[in-house]
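One-letter codes give the sequence; the integers encode the fold. A sample entry reads:
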Amino acid sequence: MNSADLETVPATLREHVAHMCRQLYGRGWMEGTSGNISVRSGDAVLISASGCAKGTVDRRDTVLVNAGDGSRFTGETRRPSAETAVHLAFYREYEDCGAVIHAHAPYSTALASLPRFHRAGQGVAHVEFVDMELAKGLGLDDPSHVRVPVFVNWPEVRRIAADVGAFLRASPPRATAGLLIERHGVTTWGRDLDHARNRLECVEALCRLSLLMHGSTTI
């Protein structure tokens, strides 16, 4: 894709990403420059730029990258989110994935910060939600028993992305709506941006309920 092709990416798509960032900032889920959002556009991915304040982000704070290797297309001057590699893992493994949201929603982040998840690299853990009515909103095959993976928060994002990619490769799309990263936040995927946001809301609500019911003994 060259600079002329960038004009084929609708301005409305860039604004939709920016609007969602501002919306989640308003809910306290993307404070400061935290969090990132992406949508698929053909063989490319439009993602929020690195270091942009989510409360004032606009469509100029989005970057079009190659869905395969994350490289910027000609004409893009902003640096893409530092967590682009994690987003690309979803697009690579789930062909129906049209959007990814990573947020620092408080209850999801709090749950993923419990001491039981500080495992010094001992693999993927899980949070389980059993017989929770709200889990039906995730649209999974078995909402009666939802397992959300919790990944090690490696300093190198590409190492996290490799772990995520390996997990998704072995997990059917209808079994996984999102994931947690220890002490770092929540990531969800969806057919489109609204679907990914709905799943984000459901995961955050499930984490809130779990902490209210079980506190630090969450299973």
